[in-house]
Design a protein that fits this description.
72 residues, alpha+beta, 2 domains, two-stranded antiparallel ribbon, 3 helices, 50% helix, elongated
Amino acid sequence: MLKTMTEEDQGRLESLFMLFGVGFVLFDVDTNDPGFSIRVRAQRFWPAMFYVNEFAERLKLYDATVFQQLFG
């Protein structure tokens, strides 16, 4: 298996992905048999309601018709 990333870089990336809850999958370079390994599984987080409400308010100001279709 050909490696295109150092162990040190891989460790740094794994730490960042775990910190932010993002999934990390490594694929082999072989295009005929592109094996993979899951290094970090993605985490599910609930959104911060402050930002959800802010986005909804911006949408309502931008296009009230679309806001009405989405939220009734």
